[in-house]
């Protein structure tokens, strides 16, 4: 860029102005559904506390300063409010996180939050990204189509032989021209004309793929070799087996690696040139005159290069079929073959070229530089100049690259579906590719019908398409981001209602903001718990919006992993994370929460019975250390040991994922189970207190010691009866608490007296 004056400063897009930040949203504080349910129950207990105190004062007859007695009763029955519940639950959550990270079956899993492990056991909707999440994000070149002939993985050796023959002819021609003063001509070949045509087309296609990219070869430096020596022996380094390629897109690396496999190798690149090595070991140098990088708007990238040996200037371009179809010359096969490759799950790229004369390039360069110096509408003017070149380009080939599925994706998705979890795939890929991956990964069952939502742009079209979709039953839905936007604009409630009835939904061409919006729609319209899983920066908004966010450490960095609540290394680990750890966390916290409430209710019931017997006097039954020790050293260890309990073994939970369906109904902790525990507490507290008063009436002075001992033994027995699977630490906790109580009897005489 040329400046006419002094540069004072440079304004660049940073901070909130960068695309990645603008595509993300502010994270919210996530609260688990179990915590919300326990808050409701705690409110009910508070109302019960106030009601009980009022009843006691009423039965007292409002004698004297009744309001003072009311507050005394509030203090006496304050154990109804489970103050220790929050502490026990938080310690339990920390224990669940530790167990998850120590599980050898899901190595590398990291728990980044200590507030919502129970959410893993309550999920109904799983929203997943495709590339890098269901797939490995490792691209493998699978198909090259030239219009009349197509080459697959089993015929790549034919391409290699064509390239070897082509470049051997070129070099023999060059060596002949160097010893003769006559101008070189194309050597005659005895091969048929069609064969020669195919060979030249393969030659042009492979050369275009080897030149049109942003890939840089990198060589590992060898110990004991200085930089000067390396530079001097650059030819030797070109054959280094430790060569690796670096690029922003794995697709481009796959293409360059393929050209290397067929004989044309990218060996060096800098800002102004790149060098290719032919099968015969000759180095071809091309000067980079201009480069037009890929953008999400243009969906294509281009490069203008000059051949050092011949001086020919060529404009190469590659991009998505939707962008390239209007740029290349008329053909009758591109659209059909793109659809065929997409149905096979391949990512397609169209490659084209245009030869430029020196005059054409000089004219373009002057207009291009002039446009770059414009003060107003610079981007539009630059785009217009580039588009002047993008006309009637020669279509060279169509490439197909496969992104392989991750290990055990199919059985994992099958398990999640059997567990009653509805899976939505949100991806930026084209519709055909997304549909193919959904089928191959068994996200959509092979026996299920698929309804592909037609592209809609108006309210009327959306209405007709929704009516057509409404008439179908038990079919998966595939919809594009643009059509989704139109449907949500006019028929939000109807669309979400219909989509939620589908066993699987695939949304293609989705932007990061749309992904987060879909998560919020499901939360708002269904009230069910959602989980989002992704591996890239474009999934961060979705992960943060979901009730439970899971990030995968992939090739796109750790942005999603760091923003998530849970981080895993492979998609298949989500099965054990939900079926085993999600189940255990929810079941254990539900049991722990209700047991802590029971512990407070039973002692408050005994206090109420004691006060009722003595004419509703606001006198404490247990004082001092007894009240402190009851919730700590006497009962804390056995009650907290419930975090080690499990109702089914991990193997059974994975073998029968249908067991997970019961968790989403919330039956382990509800007002019904809460009332059952309240009745149990009232019954036990009443029996303990009345039993102590009636059976030991002659030894009334020892009623405190008798009732308190019975209370401690009852709590320990209740924990033992509640446990489903014994752990050695549970046994230790039971005997440790009992031992502490027996040992403390030595100095409890003053309290029992």
TrEMBL record:
Keyword Cytoplasm: no
Sequence ranges of Low complexity compositional bias: 170-190
Single GO biological process annotation from the record: retrograde vesicle-mediated transport, Golgi to endoplasmic reticulum
GO molecular function, one term: ATP hydrolysis activity
Domain of life: Eukaryota
Entry similarity comment: Belongs to the cation transport ATPase (P-type) (TC 3.A.3) family. Type IV subfamily.
Catalytic function, reaction form: ATP + H2O + phospholipidSide 1 = ADP + phosphate + phospholipidSide 2
Keyword entries, A-Z: ATP-binding, Golgi apparatus, Lipid transport, Magnesium, Membrane, Metal-binding, Nucleotide-binding, Translocase, Transmembrane, Transmembrane helix, Transport
Residue span, P-type ATPase C-terminal domain: 562-751
Stated name of the protein: Phospholipid-transporting ATPase
Binding site for ATP: 129-131, 252, 294, 318, 347, 427-429, 509, 515, 538-539
Subcellular location: Golgi apparatus, trans-Golgi network membrane; Membrane
Stretches the record annotates as Disordered: 170-197
Topological type in the membrane: Multi-pass membrane protein
Active site per database record: 129 (4-aspartylphosphate intermediate)
Entry binding sites for Mg(2+): 129, 131, 535, 539
Keyword Transferase in record: no
Annotated InterPro entries: ATPase_P-typ_cyto_dom_N (IPR023299), ATPase_P-typ_P_site (IPR018303), ATPase_P-typ_TM_dom_sf (IPR023298), HAD-like_sf (IPR036412), HAD_sf (IPR023214), P-type_ATPase_IV (IPR006539), P_typ_ATPase (IPR001757), P_typ_ATPase_c (IPR032630)
Membrane-crossing residue ranges in chain numbering: 44-64, 70-89, 596-618, 624-644, 674-694, 700-721, 728-748
Organism: Atlantisia rogersi (Inaccessible Island rail)
């Amino acid at each position: 860029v040329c400046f006419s004056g002094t540069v004072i400063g440079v304004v660049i897009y940073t901070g909130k102005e960068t695309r990645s930040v603008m595509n993300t949203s502010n994270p919210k504080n996530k609260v688990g559904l179990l915590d919300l349910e326990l808050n409701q129950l705690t409110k009910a207990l508070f109302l019960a506390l106030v009601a009980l105190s009022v009843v006691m004062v009423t039965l007292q007859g409002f004698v004297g300063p009744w309001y003072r007695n009311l507050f005394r009763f509030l203090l006496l029955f304050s154990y109804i409010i489970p103050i220790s519940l929050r502490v026990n639950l938080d310690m339990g959550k920390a224990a669940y996180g530790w167990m998850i990270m120590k599980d050898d079956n899901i190595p590398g899993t990291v728990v980044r939050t200590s507030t919502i492990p129970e959410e893993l056991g309550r999920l109904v909707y799983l929203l997943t990204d495709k590339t890098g999440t269901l797939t490995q994000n490792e691209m493998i070149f699978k198909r090259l189509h030239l219009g009349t002939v197509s080459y697959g993985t089993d015929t790549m050796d034919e391409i290699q032989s064509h390239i070897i023959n082509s470049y051997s002819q070129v070099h023999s021609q060059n060596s002949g021209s160097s010893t003769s003063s006559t101008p070189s001509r194309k050597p005659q070949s005895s091969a048929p004309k069609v064969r020669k045509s195919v060979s030249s087309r393969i030659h042009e296609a492979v050369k275009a793929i080897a030149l049109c990219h942003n890939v840089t070869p990198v060589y590992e430096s060898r110990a004991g070799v200085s930089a000067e020596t390396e530079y001097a022996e650059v030819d030797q380094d070109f054959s280094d087996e430790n060569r690796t390629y670096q690029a922003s897109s794995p697709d481009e690396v796959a293409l360059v690696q393929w050209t290397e496999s067929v004989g044309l190798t990218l060996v060096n690149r800098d800002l102004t040139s790149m060098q290719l090595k032919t099968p015969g070991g000759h180095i071809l140098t091309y000067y980079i005159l201009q480069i037009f990088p890929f953008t999400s708007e243009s969906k294509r990238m281009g490069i203008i290069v000059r051949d050092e040996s011949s001086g020919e200037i060529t404009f190469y371009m590659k991009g998505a079929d939707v962008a390239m179809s209007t740029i290349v010359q008329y053909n009758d096969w591109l659209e059909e073959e793109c659809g065929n490759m997409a149905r096979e799950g391949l990512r397609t790229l169209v490659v084209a070229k245009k030869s430029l004369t020196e005059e054409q390039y000089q004219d373009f360069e002057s207009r291009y530089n002039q446009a770059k110096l414009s003060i107003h509408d610079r981007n539009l003017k630059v785009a217009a100049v580039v588009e002047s070149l993008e006309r009637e380009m020669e279509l060279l080939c169509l490439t197909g690259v496969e992104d392989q599925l991750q290990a055990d994706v199919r059985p994992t998705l099958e398990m999640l579906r059997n567990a009653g979890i509805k899976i939505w795939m949100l991806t930026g890929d084209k519709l055909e590719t997304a549909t193919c991956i959904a089928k191959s990964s068994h996200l959509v069952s092979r026996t299920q019908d698929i309804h592909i939502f037609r592209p809609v742009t108006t309210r009327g079209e959306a209405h007709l398409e929704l009516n057509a979709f409404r008439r179908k039953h038990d079919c998966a839905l595939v919809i594009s981001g643009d059509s989704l936007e139109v449907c949500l604009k006019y028929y939000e409630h109807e669309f979400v209602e219909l989509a939620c009835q589908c066993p699987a939904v695939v949304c293609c061409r989705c932007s990061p903001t749309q992904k987060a919006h879909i998560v919020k729609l499901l939360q708002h319209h269904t009230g069910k718990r959602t989980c989002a899983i992704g591996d890239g920066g474009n999934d961060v908004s979705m992960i943060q919006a979901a009730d439970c966010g899971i990030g995968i450490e992939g090739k796109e960095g750790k942005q999603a992993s760091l923003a998530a609540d849970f981080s895993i290394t492979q998609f298949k680990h989500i099965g054990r994370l939900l079926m085993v750890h999600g189940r255990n966390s929810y079941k254990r916290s539900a049991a722990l929460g209700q047991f802590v409430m029971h512990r407070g209710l039973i002692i408050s019931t005994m206090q109420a019975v004691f006060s009722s017997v003595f004419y509703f006097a606001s006198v404490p039954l247990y004082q001092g250390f007894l009240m402190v020790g009851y919730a700590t050293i006497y009962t804390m260890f056995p009650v907290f040991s419930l975090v080690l309990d499990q109702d089914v073994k991990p193997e059974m939970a994975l073998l029968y994922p249908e067991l997970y369906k019961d968790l989403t109904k919330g039956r382990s902790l509800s007002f019904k189970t809460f009332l059952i525990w309240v009745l149990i507490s009232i019954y036990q507290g009443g029996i303990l207190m009345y039993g102590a008063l009636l059976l030991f009436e002659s030894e009334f002075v020892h009623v405190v010691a008798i009732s308190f001992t019975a209370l401690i033994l009852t709590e320990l027995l209740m924990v033992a009866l509640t446990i489903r699977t014994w752990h050695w630490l549970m046994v230790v906790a039971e005997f440790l608490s009992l031992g502490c109580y027996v040992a403390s009897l030595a100095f409890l005489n003053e309290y029992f007296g």
